[in-house]
Design brief:
It contains 13 helices and 23 strands. The longest helix has 15 residues. The N terminus is likely disordered. Helix 3 runs antiparallel to helix 13, helix 4 runs antiparallel to helix 8 and helix 9 packs across helix 10.
Length: about 475
């Protein structure tokens, strides 16, 4: 028996497969990748029809990885509205005399998912324009909007410096991250190292020497180490930087959120011409109007970053904001999960097996079903937030996490998808146009040690929908 015939025989013999109506070509793609079909769940449905085109194990609760962000962002668009904006406010806790604040300046955060360096600079400029020339007290941080357990950045995968492991915070500035830039200095025989943003709390122990080795795994060769006590970070290196690399950069999550905000305030308030030499205190913001307000980008822009770029910390900020806006403060993950379930029930989306821990999918505990995901996608397609939700997804071969996928085939530009990836997990969900222009909702999840091999199979599923979605008849397998 040829290998192809053996696979077909296995497909036909698989328990429950006939009832599931899984197309043979789709099943064969997963088997070719070494992934048993009992570790896969797939649902495909024309959004204009009441029943799926086919559903394979649609009710199995599985880890969806970052595909969980679809649940968080749909709930946010529905509850908050696409034009929702976060506000970060600065309050004077004392009188201002001749431009000098005789007391603390208090920053109150409400969970803005994306405060960039440029936005922060504009915030400092507004403070100065309010008449504030100097602060004689400390910088107060009011983080009372969120109530969160201590965050261990290395707990998930042992990579505490990775920006994707940064935890949520009511006042999260620039993802509390820094770009470390390495530039060969041939004259001195060492490497110039600088930080962006240039915070004095970030220092280099000694510049690494240069080497003539090939660039290759330059980070592994350089062996950087960061000693971070939350308030200051010292970077050292055990190896050398290859000249062949030219200029390179490396992003790290550093300091804790309050100390990072203090460092950013000190640096950029001074850069705007202000005077500040105070320390850091955590305290409540005083009553009264703020001196200045930093307003976020609208939610419809935020969800594009969350879904197209699969930004974990932004997803977690959005998730907690749901609780902040729909329940008494402070926001907690448990409250946020309850709000999501309430939104889904009101929109008629049944997800009885949904388990949400942080709303980003960066979790070993979160669970969802492929059937539930497709019900959400169909509901979103019929909702008032349809365009904002769909446009937040990566476009095949065009942008986001799909920029380098589907580049050589007819699916390019014809699929809007969210991808998910963890060790032992690969998933995708979103919308695919078939060759006749019909829009299909699709959800596919792999939970298996060989999941990393499943990318080609998931791509084959999307391509199958484009080619066969309009014409497939389960009674006549093709």
């Amino acid at each position: 028996m040829t290998r192809a015939l053996a696979i077909v025989a296995l497909l036909l013999a698989w328990p429950g497969l006939a009832a599931a109506e899984l197309p043979r070509a789709v099943g064969r793609a997963f088997l070719d990748a070494g992934i048993p079909l009992n570790r896969v769940a797939i649902v495909v449905q024309d959004v204009g029809k009441p029943r799926p085109l086919f559903a394979y194990d649609p009710d199995r609760a599985m880890n969806p990885a970052s595909v969980m962000k679809l649940v968080t962002t749909f709930a946010a668009l529905e509850l908050l509205g696409p034009d929702y904006r976060w506000r970060t406010e600065a309050y004077a806790a004392g009188p201002i005399v001749g431009g000098v604040l005789k007391g603390d300046l208090v920053l109150k955060g409400r969970g803005d998912p994306k405060i960039t360096v440029e936005q922060w600079q504009a915030f400092m400029t507004r403070l100065r324009a309010s008449g504030l020339d100097a602060v004689d007290g400390n910088l107060g941080i009011d983080r009372s909007a969120f109530a969160l357990p201590p965050h261990d950045a290395g707990l998930f995968d042992g990579e505490p410096l990775k920006p994707y492991n940064v935890g949520p915070d009511a006042l999260l500035v620039n993802f509390k991250s820094a770009q470390v830039v390495f530039t060969p200095d041939l004259a001195s025989g060492t490497t110039a190292v600088r930080f962006d943003p240039p915070l004095p709390e970030l220092r280099v122990a000694a510049a690494p020497p240069l080497s003539g080795a090939p660039c290759g795994d330059w980070r592994g060769v350089l062996v950087p180490r960061v000693d971070d006590d939350g308030a200051r970070a010292l970077v050292s290196f055990a190896g050398a930087f290859p000249v062949a690399c030219g200029e390179r950069d490396w992003w790290i999550g550093v300091l804790d959120a309050p100390h990072y905000a203090h460092a950013m305030f000190t640096t950029y308030f001074r850069a705007a011409g202000g005077r500040f030499d105070g320390g850091l205190v955590e305290r409540a913001a005083p009553a009264g109007p703020p001196l200045a307000t930093l307003e976020s980008a609208p939610l419809y822009d935020i969800v594009r970053d969350v879904n197209k770029l699969s930004n974990n910390v932004m997803a977690r900020q959005v998730f907690l904001t749901l609780a902040l806006e729909a329940a008494p403060p402070p926001a907690t993950p448990a409250k946020a999960a309850d709000v999501v379930r309430r939104v889904l029930r009101l929109r008629g989306v049944a997800m009885p097996k949904l388990v949400m821990e942080n709303g980003s999918g960066l979790s070993r505990n979160e669970r969802i079903t492929a059937g539930g995901l497709v019900r959400l996608l169909v509901a979103a397609d019929r909702s008032a937030v349809r365009e904002d939700f769909a446009s937040s997804l990566a476009v095949a071969a065009i942008d986001g996490t799909l920029e380098r996928r589907f580049v050589a085939g007819p699916v390019a530009g014809q699929a809007l998808l969210k991808t998910g990836s963890l060790e032992g997990v690969r998933a995708l969900a979103g919308y695919v146009l078939d060759g006749a222009g019909h829009r299909h909702a699709v959800a596919a999840i792999i939970n298996h040690p060989n999941a990393a091999r499943g990318g080609a199979a998931l791509d084959a599923l999307v391509q199958w929908i484009w080619q066969n979605g309009a014409t497939w008849d389960p009674a006549h397998q093709r």
